[in-house]
Amino acid sequence: MLSGDYYVMDAFWFDPDSGYRTWKKPNWPEGPDRSEMRVRHSMVYGILGKCKTKASRKTIHLDEFLMERLREHLSRTPYNQPDDWVFASPRSNGKKPFTTGSLNRWHLRPAAKRAGIDGPVGWHTLRRTFATLMIENGENVKVVQELMRHANSKLTLDAYAQSTTNAKRHAQRRIIEQVIPSLSSIPLTTSTVVQ
Questions:
Q1: Does residue 129 surpass a pLDDT of 70?
Q2: How does pLDDT run across 72-95, given as a tens digit for each residue?
Q3: Strand, coil or helix: 89
Q4: Which residues have C-beta within 8 Å of that of residue 73, sequence separation ≥ 6?
């Protein structure tokens, strides 16, 4: 769906899948299998500072797939030293990270438009999709909260995750089957319409 240089592609892969945000400055991979990162700084509105919360500073544990993507990124980027931004902007010669505004404007929104997606699409659209899919897949809310690096699960559930139509129908069906067991033999379809 997305086009553009590898920096942008890697940033889009990395953020929603790990809960990492491109504007945070982590240490490069560490730990026994080099699959962990720690965030050290945050850049907000172009100003470098400390991370907002304790949750923002916690270790990021990376999936093997994400580690492979990160290794590929590190092998291609000239900005791969311990003090460099993971997704450094070539426009600033690596002195600053990509901003979400530029990623949205020049890459995400045009890609969404090409894919036939109308309406507002932004960086947080990816994060909300990530949270929603994790919850729908039955992941523990605490796990989703920590992967997204939120300070509390209320933020994860109230601002990011959404219940899906399919999940709502299945929840209703389970209750109905408890009350009227004979309905358990009737298949649940997504096209059932109540008039």
A1: yes
A2: 888 888 888 777 787 888 888 878
A3: coil
A4: 6, 7, 10, 14, 86, 87
DSSP 62: -
* Look-up of token digits 């590929």: 72
Write out pLDDT tens, residues 151-185.
899 999 999 999 889 889 888 888 888 888 877 77
CB 115 within 8 A of CB 1: yes
Copy the structure tokens of residue 66: 């994400």
- Quote the tokens at residue 50: 């400390």
d(CA 124, CA 129): 8
Contact status, residue 43 vs residue 103, Cβ threshold 8 Å: no
Nearest CA to 122 out of 108, 142, 136, 141 is that of: 108
Contact by Cβ (8 Å): 30, 135: no
Q: Which pair of tokens denotes residue 147?
A: 């992967």
Structure tokens at 145: 């909260």
pTM for the structure as a whole = 0.75
| Beta-carbon contacts of residue 83 (< 8 Å; ≥ 6 apart) | none
Mean pLDDT of 92-119: 84
* Dist. CA 113–CA 105, nearest whole Å: 11
Residue 2, CB half-sphere, CA atoms under 13 Å: how many?
A: 18
